Task: structure prediction
Amino acid sequence: AINFSFYSDPDRLKKNVQNYIRKGVYAAGTTGSTIIYHELGHMLDGIYITKNYPVKDRERVWDNGISATRILKEASMSCYGDNVAYKDALKSISGYAASRDDEGLAECCHMEFTDRGNEFTNTVVSILLGKKR
Result:
């Protein structure tokens, strides 16, 4: 769910984003107006879950970030030939990206949709959208 108190005051949002960038939580170049791409990443994860998991498993998959981990591992194998190298790829984006796989997936979308991505983020988004590379 979107944290409305975080987004409700544009000036506070700008100040918070700048503070989080300075602390290394958010990736450099993040702005209040680009955060929506992170949230879009979560929405795409939800669509991916709906398409790829039976109804009885969806809540568990969402709550535990299972689909995000699956996608990140698949992208990691494609890009690096190693299914855990994605952890370093996420660390290179931001502390927030490295904190949990579902947040890392959302940050990959944020980077890709703001033209700051790389081969890994592109692969993650391609998998989410069901595109062949």
